[in-house]
Amino acid sequence: MAGVSVTALQEKSFDEPDEKRRPPKTAVDVVNISDHTLARCTFEPGWRWSETVKTVVHTDTCQVNHLGFCTAGTLTVEMEDGTRTTVRPGHAYAVPPGHDAWVEGDEAFVGYEILSAATFAKPD
User: How far is CA 93 from CA 56, 63, 77, in A?
Assistant: First the structure.
């Protein structure tokens, strides 16, 4: 099984990202570190993928694979077939392409993403 390798000691802050993506109600802070891309995704209360990120990527549903973990807020994800899950603080998540998602409640969702960071919320 091939693994991910790291060849140098590095650290970076999401507070000083290499790239910022800012669709409505969305903050994606991207860091590139040791040939890998990571993102901190912050979605404001009232955020819904189909009303925010869709405006910059122009697909009917999110077509990105997500792998990450939640540190704040609550996010509900619904697949095209209607199956749903709700992600809460302390949860790790994996989401395949073909979904919508929205923030539940009055707290911003904060997730750190490992798999989708290079492309999520990036204008087409």
Answer: 24, 16, 10
Give the H/E segment covering residue 83.
none
**C-beta of residue 30 within 8 angstroms of C-beta of residue 21:** yes
* CATH for the 19-113 domain, from 3.30.360.10, 3.10.180.10, 3.10.580.10, 2.60.120.10: 2.60.120.10
pLDDT tens profile 3-35 = 778 888 999 999 999 999 999 999 999 999 988
* Alpha-helical runs (H) found in 3-62: 54-57
**Hey, what are 34's tokens?**
């040791």
Query: Which value, to the nearest 10 degrees, does the dihedral of the CA atoms of residues 3, 91, 124, 21 take?
Result: -100
Residue partners of 83: CB distance under 8 A and separation at least 6: none
Q: Is the dihedral of CA 41, 46, 63, 75 positive or negative?
A: positive
pTM assigned to the model:
0.94
